[in-house]
Write a structure and sequence with these properties.
Number of helices: 6
Largest sheet: 7 strands, mixed
Oligomer: single chain
């Protein structure tokens, strides 16, 4: 990643503007899923952020490490109870290496799209694979591009409209780039944030995994293990690092 999207201003309001993602109904199934895959082995979160998943996963007894390029986001994490149990390295999660072998590496909340080229996304898979012990797994949570919602000839649509959040998604089809424009109500005033993300299809992710020496174990339609179908709006995919003979 050549640009830090989550600067001090964004980090200061991140938990509030993403409050729905901190709800127990969202966090608990995620932690259950990941803890089951960890099976007592250490876990590494790529783009650990303010600790939305890392902190409750650590509280479940999983040894959690993290990588994140944004020092302001990590500062928010380090201000929270339980953060002393989590070792965080500042760096680009596509290339930064940390010591140790992990049974679980995970990347949640569409964050693979934060890197804007296919080569960098392949680097993420290769970096995850390099950290995994044989039999370990790499987990990604990511949305399915909602291109079917675009009327013919249009490039954008309103993804969400509420009294506290407005989101407009704009697509550049040739480069698989989605510009996501957000306006959040925070502390009584509107905050604006726009970011460019490279959307990626499940089949493309499987090829990236194959390049990195990983193989698909399962793909489900959510952390609740609902069935993944052509109507799913997101998926959770699990790739495994094979044992070597």
């Amino acid at each position: 990643m050549t640009e830090v999207q989550f600067d001090a201003r964004a980090a200061a309001v991140y938990d509030e503007t993403s409050a729905v993602m901190f709800e127990p109904a969202v966090v608990e199934p995620t932690v259950d899923f990941l803890a089951d895959l960890a099976r007592g082995r250490p876990a590494l979160e790529l783009a650990i952020g303010t600790g939305r998943i890392a902190l409750p996963l650590s509280a479940r007894g999983v040894e959690v490490h993290g990588i994140d390029i944004s020092e302001p986001m990590v500062d928010r994490l380090r201000s929270k109870p339980g953060s002393e149990r989590i070792d965080v390295t500042i760096g680009d999660f596509a290339t930064t290496r940390v010591d140790g072998a992990f049974g679980l590496v995970y990347l949640v909340f569409n964050t693979i799209g934060n890197v804007e080229t296919q080569d960098e996304q392949v680097d993420i898979f290769c970096n995850a694979a390099a950290h995994l012990e044989p039999g370990g797994v790499f987990v990604i949570e990511v949305g399915i591009p909602q291109l079917q919602r675009l009327p013919p000839g249009d490039r954008s649509h309103v993804a969400e409209l509420s009294p506290t959040h407005v989101c407009v998604d704009e697509f550049e089809l040739s480069d698989q780039i989605e510009w996501s424009h957000h306006w959040y109500m925070a502390d009584g005033h509107w905050e604006h944030f726009s970011g460019a993300y490279r959307y990626v299809w499940p089949a493309e992710l499987d090829l990236m995994a194959r390049i990195a020496g990983l193989r698909l174990r399962e793909r489900v339609g959510g952390w609740d293990r609902s069935r993944f179908t052509s109507k799913s709006g997101m998926h959770v995919s699990v790739w495994e690092k094979p044992h070597t003979d």
